[in-house]
């Protein structure tokens, strides 16, 4: 899109505030009718500069999507409204908001700086490919282009993985490791892993928007030299024929079950597999799928609200 198009193209922004456990179904609904132009922001009225180590996000999020204004916009908006109406029978969903914006305005949409755990700071950044100056602390700074892909760290499924990655780094296991990040979204998991000692990351996503976003985010966060981005799923001919020390997959239970075999197949013996995006009631089905997919043991299960993450170790080659 040319700069002039970006200034004159018109988009319908639809946003809705709701409890975080409903972010995923609304994100799917919005993605479907907006060609994946969706982003999720922590709700609340607070000053990003004042976010300190004790900050814990509130339970509400705002989900935004952007519909190109063309002949189909009325139908797509209608489908979204039907979905939101059904959702409001299950959850406390506030009435949605609408406004017309230009492409420039929505791609500059921002999210507040957030802190995950004690050490990870995630900030929005413009797509100017320049790394902002970082204060000299032990904090791990991640810069993400807002408005382009899932994974700003304010969803429990991402937070569960990020906190586990910090634990892996603290135990020394992450150092020099090779990562496969399936369903990388914004690339936030790989970026943090690389910044905390991993030597190489391969980021894979089926969504073209995520693939574009992750390339920018790796550059902005200063880790593009050690990373590779592949569009598609796994198995994938564009991936190297190696076994990885870590495989991350924060997707959905259904996709995790479908991909259990290639996920396990990509891990080396002794390698760690982290899978997230699992609703509490689906944990046993996901565990069973992985235990049937290859030689591994489940070493940890973490939970936040309605969501769970599994940590597994591959026990021999497959
Ligand atoms: C919940 S987001 C996770 C993003 C990021 N990894 C995080 O932890 O925040 C899931 C991502 O998986 C991608 N995805 C869905 N199905 C996939 C598949 N079969 N193969 C690869 N990626 C997939 C989606 O496009 C989306 O970007």
- The CATH architecture of the largest domain can be named as 3-Layer(aba) Sandwich
| Helical residue percent band | 25-40%
| Main sheet record | 7 strands, mixed
Full CATH superfamily name of the largest domain: Vaccinia Virus protein VP39
- Please state how the strands of the largest beta sheet are arranged side by side: 10-9-8-11-12-14-13
The value of Rg in angstroms is 19 Å
What does this structure look like?
This protein is of the alpha/beta class. The strands form 3 sheets. It has a 7-stranded mixed sheet, with helices on both faces. The protein has a 4-stranded antiparallel sheet with strand order 2-3-1-4. The protein has a 3-stranded mixed sheet with strand order 5-6-7. Residues 44-57 have low confidence and may be disordered. Helix content is 31%, strand content 30%. The chain has 2 domains: 3-108, 2-Layer Sandwich (Alpha-Beta Plaits), CATH 3.30.70.260; 140-314, Vaccinia Virus protein VP39 (Rossmann fold). It is globular. Bound molecules: S-adenosylmethionine (SAM).
Describe the SSE topology.
Layout (H helix, E strand, L loop, with lengths): L2 H6 L1 E10 L3 H12 L3 E5 L17 E9 L4 H16 L8 E6 H5 L6 E3 L3 E5 L15 E5 L11 H15 L7 E5 L5 H8 L4 E6 L2 H13 L6 E5 L12 E7 L2 H14 E13 L3 H11 L2 E9 L2 E8 L4
Helix pairs in contact: 2-3, 5-6, 8-9
The chain binds S-adenosylmethionine.
Quick recap:
With 318 residues, the protein is of the alpha/beta class.
Sum up the structure in keywords.
single chain; binds S-adenosylmethionine; Rossmann fold; four-stranded antiparallel sheet; 318 residues; alpha/beta; seven-stranded mixed sheet; Alpha-Beta Plaits; 14 strands; 31% helix; methyltransferase
């Amino acid at each position: 899109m040319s700069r002039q198009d970006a200034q004159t193209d018109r988009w319908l922004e639809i946003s809705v505030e709701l409890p975080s456990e409903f972010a995923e179904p609304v994100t799917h609904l919005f993605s479907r009718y907006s060609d994946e132009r969706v982003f999720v922001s922590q709700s609340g009225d607070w000053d990003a500069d004042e976010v300190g180590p004790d900050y814990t996000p509130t339970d509400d999020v705002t989900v935004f999507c952007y519909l190109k204004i063309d002949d189909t916009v009325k139908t797509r908006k209608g489908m979204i409204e039907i979905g939101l109406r059904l959702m409001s029978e299950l959850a406390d969903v506030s009435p949605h908001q609408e406004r017309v914006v230009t492409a420039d305005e929505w791609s500059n949409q921002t999210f507040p700086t957030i802190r995950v755990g004690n050490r990870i700071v995630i900030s929005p950044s413009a797509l100017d490919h320049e790394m902002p100056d970082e204060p000299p602390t032990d904090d791990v700074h991640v810069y993400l282009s807002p408005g382009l892909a899932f994974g700003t760290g304010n969803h429990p499924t991402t937070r569960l993985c990020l906190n586990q990655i910090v634990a892996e780094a603290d135990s020394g296991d992450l150092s020099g490791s090779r990562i496969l990040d399936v369903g990388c979204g914004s690339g936030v998991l790989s970026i943090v892993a690389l910044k905390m000692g991993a030597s190489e990351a391969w980021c894979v996503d089926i969504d073209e928007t995520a693939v574009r976003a992750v390339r920018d985010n790796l550059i902005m966060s200063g880790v593009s030299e050690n990373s590779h981005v592949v569009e598609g799923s796994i198995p994938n001919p564009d991936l190297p024929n190696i076994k990885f020390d870590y495989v991350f997959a924060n997707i959905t239970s259904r996709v995790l079950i479908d991909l259990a075999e290639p996920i396990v197949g990509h891990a080396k013996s002794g390698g760690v597999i982290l899978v997230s995006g699992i609703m509490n009631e689906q944990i046993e089905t996901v565990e069973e799928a992985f235990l049937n997919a290859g030689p591994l043991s489940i070493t940890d299960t973490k939970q936040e609200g309605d969501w769970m993450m599994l940590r597994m170790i591959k026990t021999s080659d497959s």
